[in-house]
User: Which sequence fits this backbone?
């Protein structure tokens, strides 16, 4: 079943965000392993960096309950790391 509002809110652009390699891979690994506790900890770290990363964390949180691994991985593809 497709809902009318699905395409009304396109995904925010997170391509301007650059995370540390450690935090980026913590996010990737926690999602891939479906480890919600580690994912929540990584999102808490994102909250503390700046408004852009807080927005990213808030957006990812919308896909935790129920966990949507593919959507979160797709979101993280837009994020850079160094």
Assistant:
């Amino acid at each position: 079943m497709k809902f009318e509002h699905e395409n009304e809110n396109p995904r925010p652009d997170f391509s301007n965000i650059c995370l540390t390699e450690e935090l980026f891979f913590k996010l990737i690994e926690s999602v891939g392993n479906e480890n919600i506790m580690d994912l929540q900890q990584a999102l808490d770290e994102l909250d503390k960096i700046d408004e852009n990363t807080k927005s990213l964390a808030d957006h990812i949180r919308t896909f935790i309950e129920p966990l949507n691994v593919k959507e979160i991985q797709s979101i993280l593809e837009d994020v850079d790391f160094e």
